[in-house]
Design goal:
With 83 residues, the chain is α+β, with helices and mostly antiparallel strands. The protein contains one helix and five strands, in the order E-E-E-E-E-H.
């Protein structure tokens, strides 16, 4: 995983994928395992020739979005302390 937000994520993959493919994604956030469905909305090749996919979450609940956002804010707070 390269990036995460309440609405989706960026993911580096080795498999052959294309726009509109649907993925089943398992992530752990705040000690809660989530099984999320995501649609690939973009596939790019980065400078290291990795396939980087932009994924939009489908059918995600408000509680799941809230947990992801809580985790992201906690990470940001820890990073500020380190600066």
């Amino acid at each position: 995983m390269v990036d995460l937000s309440g609405g989706g994520m960026r993911l580096i993959v080795k498999e052959e994928v294309k726009v509109n493919d649907i993925l089943l994604i398992r992530i752990e956030v705040k000690n809660l395992e989530m099984l999320l469905k995501g649609q690939i909305v973009r596939v790019e090749i980065d400078k290291d020739l990795n396939k980087v996919c932009g994924i939009k979450f489908l059918d995600i609940t408000e509680m799941q979005v809230d947990k992801i956002i809580e985790e992201l804010f906690e990470i940001m707070r820890k990073q500020k302390v380190l600066l």
